[in-house]
Amino acid sequence: MFYTLNKVTKVYQTESKEKWNPSELKEFISQNNLIAPHLDSSSQSSRRGYTNADLVYLGEQIGFLAKPNRPKVLSMFVTKGGVLKTSLTLNVARMAALHGIRTLVVGLDLQGDISNAIGYNQELDDEAFESAIERIDQTKGLADVFFKRCQVSDTIVKTDLPTLDLIPETPELVALEQGLIHRARRELWLKEQIIAPLQSQYDLFVIDCSPNWNQLITNALSASDILLSPLECKINNYRNFQMFRAFVSEFIEEMNLDLQHLYIPTRWTQSRKLSTEIKEWYLEQVEDCVPVAIRDSVVGEEATAMHLSVSEYDPGSTAAIEMNEALHWVWKRVAPEASKTAEQSPQTEAEA
Ligand SMILES: Nc1ncnc2c1ncn2[C@@H]1O[C@H](COP(=O)(O)OP(=O)(O)OP(=O)(O)O)[C@@H](O)[C@H]1O
Ligand SMILES: [Mg+2]
């Protein structure tokens, strides 16, 4: 991807913050000695701009997400399939990384969806069968750490963004899940053995969960500061939501966790009256609900298929601005200290 200055202003566009004006941004970049727009080395075009790896450095100065003052862990989980958990994980992680926030995505779903969404193994499709198999076999995962076959650092893979890494899912997660059952302090393995040793290297951990309650989920929740649960704007989700909310509250209480639970309405179909009514109900009745719904959109679906956040894929589109606005609200929990400063002095927020 290549972004002209005009496009950069749209990548960091939200509903609640005033958008950068391209000429003001140009001046800000030169005054602060930030990376100057350069030619696109991947094409013959004479236009100037930035790669998404460049945006990591720009985003830190001009974006809307602040680095938390200590490493934070966010889990994406709800007991319902296909409600955009993985797509949200991808968007949270890529947008955080595009703000210079050092982010590690941890895949805990056996389906391996977040590893695919991030684009891990993407190039394997073009490789010969045997070398592809060999590479897959070499991938180390959390189960290898659990069974003492490797170190945590051996499981981490790089992505196209310098601030975004991944611990990919491997099929042995099944064995890890089973192994955890028989372990003392089993809910704390992920927190103590994986997250704690990596705290100095990352500002944010984002954990993508499966929709099924198991030992990997209890580990994710026990390691987390924030649990983000998508709420599908569909009638069959209503009963599931009531059950889920009660179950999570009980778990938080039993485990004595310092975990904030946040909900986000997803899969809103604007043209359907019932879907809109359900969305409104969530926004009015559910405490701790992000006040922005993620609608069903082709742009959102295509972005995930292209391994990009919506804002990178189609900057300035309705879907992108909506996603950014949702992230802005999630960040009030991820980095509350930054939100407070911004609220106290609106001028600082507009200038930041
Ligand atoms: N805004 C969107 N509108 C419609 N579809 C979308 C949108 N964003 C992503 N999708 C698509 O919806 C499908 C389901 O999303 P996703 O995989 O994120 O759900 P999930 O909750 O993680 O599912 P699972 O429970 O299987 O893990 C995916 O094919 C994804 O590409
Ligand atoms: Mg998923």
Describe it.
The structure is a single chain. The protein has 17 helices and 11 strands. It has helices spanning 5-11, 22-31, 52-62, 85-97, 113-118, 129-138, 142-146, 173-181, 189-198, 215-223, 237-255, 273-285, 298-305, 310-313, 318-334, 336-344, 346-351, and strands at residues 2-3, 38-39, 48-51, 72-76, 103-107, 157-158, 164-167, 204-208, 226-232, 260-268, 294-295. It is α/β, with parallel strands linked by helices and 352 residues long. The protein folds into 2 domains: 1-63; 67-336, Rossmann fold, CATH 3.40.50.300. Helix 9 (189-198) crosses helix 10 (215-223) and helix 15 (318-334) crosses helix 16 (336-344). It binds adenosine-5'-triphosphate and magnesium ion. Magnesium ion binds next to helix 4.
